[in-house]
Automatic annotation (TrEMBL):
UniProt keywords, alphabetically: Ligase, Repeat
An annotated GO BP: protein polyubiquitination
Record's protein name: NHLC1 ligase
Gene Ontology molecular function, alphabetical: ligase activity; ubiquitin protein ligase activity
GO cellular component entries: nucleus
UniProt repeat feature NHL, residue ranges: 21-64, 221-252
UniProt organism field: Cisticola juncidis
């Protein structure tokens, strides 16, 4: 499990027992440095990939924390990312309003392809790839209207990048009893969309793309400000809680 944060060494890698096995990525301009990490993922072959908002790049590291690849040319402000089972990385560009697919030989540090696969998104941030169907879910952060602080929208695309479902905070509020502000998103092993909601301090399942959206709170107590979300191989749910600076692991 890799976590990005704002400490001295910005990437921490934890083993299954919860022990931190690696720390790397200090602030700076050297090859192994990370100025301002926004998201992190681990590829199928064990490489750690980070979006760095400080120099608008996507950086890949080996498990020892050595920088092996940095991609800057294509991006305005890369934000969220998730690795696919094919060892590719899906990246959101919040400023460009776009979604990219990045393919590389991480062992050799060679970029193969960085392709825009979707444009005209509104400040896309968190992204997740379904391991079974290849579907992609993205959260968009919409501009504030009037005195509100803005809202979020969740969009689901098929593996072929066809839009198959979407719902914004206003629409969710018409269906559900609370206003949802989605900060992170993931797919569970059954292909259901799960989001963190900072308004209700909860983790909520929105269902599979074909039934989207339903409303099923998975965690409704014990969170302060959930901003990160992922599932482990054994289907445990991991939540990054920025409110009390902790990682919380829940059984399936």
């Amino acid at each position: 499990l890799a976590v990005a944060h704002d400490g001295k060494k910005r990437i921490h890698v934890f083993g299954p027992s919860g022990v931190c096995v690696r720390r790397f990525g200090e602030r700076g301009d050297a090859g192994n440095d990370i100025k301002y990490p926004l998201d992190v993922t681990v590829t199928a072959d064990g490489h750690v990939v980070v979006t760095d908002g400080g120099d608008c790049s996507v950086k890949a590291f080996d498990f020892e924390g050595r920088g092996i690849l940095a991609v800057r040319e294509a991006f305005c402000l890369p934000w969220g990312l998730d690795a696919t089972p094919k060892n590719e990385v899906i990246v959101t560009d919040s400023e460009a309003g776009a979604l990219y697919r990045l393919a590389a030989d991480f062992r050799r540090g060679e970029l193969k392809k960085c392709q825009m696969i979707r444009s005209r998104l509104v400040s896309p941030r968190a992204v997740a790839v379904c391991r079974t169907s290849g579907a992609i879910v993205v959260t968009e952060h919409l501009g504030a209207r009037g005195p509100s602080k803005g809202s979020t929208r969740v969009k689901i695309f098929s593996a072929e990048m066809d839009l198959i479902g979407q719902m914004d905070s206003f629409g969710l509020n018409l269906v559900f009893p609370c206003r949802i502000h989605a900060t992170a998103v993931a797919f569970d092993k059954e292909g259901r969309v799960v989001v963190t909601d900072v308004c209700s301090q909860a983790v909520i399942c929105l269902g599979k793309p074909e039934e989207f959206p339903i409303f099923n709170p998975l965690i409704s107590h014990g969170l302060s400000y959930p901003v990160g979300l992922t599932y482990t191989a054994n289907n445990s749910l991991v939540v990054l809680d920025s409110g009390d600076h902790s990682i919380k692991v829940y059984s399936s």
